[in-house]
């Protein structure tokens, strides 16, 4: 494998389109699940969600990273300041901030979504994406990076792993700081 990972900027947008396919990855989500409130998301069509992510690729802080194997797009990770994924911060979510943490703090980041090309799942790409996401967050001023992965999925190749697996984050040095729902820990890695 000849893996390279880049921030999703406008020049890489066609590659993300290719990776996600016409359906937009997870059932047309286009990584809007944590970026929008449910009513907002439900009111938008697939093309609207796609446009929101495309617009974010032109922001000063890219919405995530895209992985290539020999020039072919094979994986994606959404990694942003917590403020960019407001649904991650609501009081009723398992990913909500710890007491005393301010989700608008630019030093508090979240790895909220992972997507790996179906035929490439189970080959360790998630590990590489998480490591690159941590480095990207650090390079952009993060002091802490959090994730809220799942302990067990029905299958190792399940699309339900869009939040990542606990074992991948534990392997990258993340520690559990809260578990508000069994099997869905809030995990954190300090970068400073």
From TrEMBL:
* Domain named N-acetyltransferase: residues: 3-192
Task: Output the PROSITE patterns linked to this UniProt entry.
Answer: GNAT
Give the source's domain of life in one word.
Bacteria
Q: Name one GO molecular function term.
A: acyltransferase activity
Please give the Pfam families that the UniProt record associates with this protein: Acetyltransf_1
State the EC number(s): 2.3.1.-
* Alphabetical list of InterPro entries matching this protein: Acyl_CoA_acyltransferase (IPR016181), GNAT_dom (IPR000182)
Task: Give the record's keywords alphabetically.
Answer: Acyltransferase, Transferase
Would the keyword Transferase turn up in this protein's UniProt record?
yes
Its protein name is GNAT family N-acetyltransferase
Q: What is the protein's species of origin?
A: Hoeflea ulvae
